[in-house]
Model the fold of this input.
Amino acid sequence: MAGPGRRHAKWCRDLRRGRRARHHRAGQDRRPHRRRREPSGGHQQRAPPAAGHEGRSHRVRQAREEARMTSLANPRVAVVGAGIVGTSIALALRKRGADVTLVDRGEPGHGCSFGNSGAISPGSVAPLAMPGVLASVPGMLLDEESPLYLPLRYLPQALPWLLRFVASAQPRRVEAAARKLAAIHTGAIEAHEAMTRELGVPELFLRRGHLHLYPDAHYLGKDAAGWRMREEYGFHVERLDRAGILALEPNVCDRYQLGMYLADHATILNPFRYVQAMARAFTGAGGRFELGKVSALQQENGAWALKGSGSGPGTFDHVVVAAGAWSKQLLSPLGIQLALESQRGYHLQFIGGRETVSRTVVLADRKVFVTPMEDGLRVGGTVEIGGLSAPPDARRAALLGRIARDTFRGLDALSTREWMGHRPCMPDSVPVVGAAPGSKNLWIATGHGHLGLTDSLNTAQHIASAIFGEVPAHAAAGAQLAGA
Done:
């Protein structure tokens, strides 16, 4: 069987042959026709000029119009960033007929998507900044084991984002953010289930709900506002006592006495393999993947060019920036300032131990997700606002290991591997999805935080629909547009 490269080369040859045939026929169609002799007294219509200056001008205008119509029907699009969001966008555009190039400095899915906890969580409508968050700021700065941690060394750089974060915790802003998040989450479960089937990997989709655990009613009360929001947006929540917890997850330790169960949520059992399957479908359908770092975007004669290592020649009608936490660096030189920060996430993967839990389990008091993966047990979560350049803090991963071993029996003998990735986070937790202001045919899809997997397919559909003119450029699931 031919590999993606050969299929892609054959697709290109077929495409060129098709274009030559269309151009040949178009040339025949433009030949001047003989005028029919009209009966005496009949009306005769002058034939259009076929030679000379007027004829050439006519042909030039016609050629330009044909090129414009081809560009509208089959636009050339570059998607920068091959994580779950960018790869989903590239696939959605290619399926609609766009000529798409997906560019990343690493292989698809090797960035933030590699370490995702796999949760598909449409009920996550409560933003990270909730009323009362100001009281937690001292702990963020001083407690190295805080679920939300901002190292003092990074405070000067993070201060503008932190001020916006605190301001976004005002009740009216929280309500607005929840509306936008609920809109972009709509139908996520069904979309991912259908996608896994389409890609031939249905075994990656686990629909067994999410179980959130609390030590007691005091800890549950701290999250009461978030649970009210879920119920307001139509999510059914079942409150469980200790017996109810053990009926679902018998390996949970005695620390956890209360549970909140969302039965209609789901999990992807290997996010990296999911993105890789999408990328294969994309290249198999004629899409191109280019390995290289894009350092700048430049407009040339109304088209877009990518500058950087590995960026091949050529221009594009549209560019989609889906570069995660690095999107800010690409957009800033164009005058587009995003209040975007890296939400550094960690996970510790136990090699084995998958049977420890049977679904996504959230240790809510510690903001830790425990998920069964194809190749073991993944323990991830917590948030560190520490920038893009600092090395991983091994203490954060070690903390996850201690929490997991304290909560579940049978993990002490298992080996582990650590991971840290950069999740792009906006102060109000609402992703930036839509047309870039002041830059024609430039699109933004970033800022999804820990919900990149959940919202990837819906983001892709909205970007693709906007590029093809099916929805207004700024109508993107009610999500916040660029310019924050």
In short: Residues 1-50, 63-70, 475-484 have pLDDT under 50 and may be disordered. The radius of gyration is 26 Å. The longest helix spans residues 4-29. The chain has 14 helices and 20 strands.
